[in-house]
Amino acid sequence: MAMNGDGVHGLNGETVAPSETKHTNGTPSKSNIACENGEAEIHAAKQNGTKRRTPTDTFSFTAEPTIDDIRRMQAEFTDERDWNQFHQPRNLLLAMVGEVGEVSELFQWRGEVTEGLPGWTDSEREHLAHELSDVLIYLVELAEKCHIDLPQAVLRKMALNRLKYPASKVHGSSKKYTEYKD
């Protein structure tokens, strides 16, 4: 999808009112900004016959809870315990870093771990789910305390990343953008 002054244009050129925009997975977008999620690249790959991995090939998140739902649940949890006095940006950042350390411990000494975590027990996967949830909860609360609209920040950052790392220039390489020559 692309946007201009008169609305959002879908992959087939149809004009869609901003309130009718949808994400690739079919869920309605509440934003007037079309998702920068590679939809045009997926469409182009289909047209020229190349195989492109899409998020739906192997895994997708559920639509709910949304990031804002998570923010509200955590705010309620924190308010009920009178913990806002402790949940300032610096403290939330340090708590999140601690949780990232706990995620790291789960991968430590395992060597390379392939996608889907084959060989992990249900208990190990659930432990990982808990620790990743802690990281997400702290990240969302940190963004809230810093007044950062995280979904919109992601859209802006992905647009910047596309400029820094054009697929035609970086395909299959792990170099940093400063290492590429024009």
UniProtKB/TrEMBL annotation:
It is an enzyme of class 3 (hydrolase). It comes from the Eukaryota. Its cofactor is Mg(2+). Keywords: Cytoplasm, Hydrolase, Magnesium, Metal-binding, Phosphoprotein. One of its GO terms (cellular component) is cytosol. It catalyses: dCTP + H2O = dCMP + diphosphate + H(+). GO terms for molecular function: dCTP diphosphatase activity; identical protein binding; metal ion binding. Pfam families: MazG-like. Homotetramer. Hydrolyzes deoxynucleoside triphosphates (dNTPs) to the corresponding nucleoside monophosphates. Has a strong preference for dCTP and its analogs including 5-iodo-dCTP and 5-methyl-dCTP for which it may even have a higher efficiency. May protect DNA or RNA against the incorporation of these genotoxic nucleotide analogs through their catabolism. This is dCTP pyrophosphatase 1. It comes from Salvelinus namaycush (Lake trout).
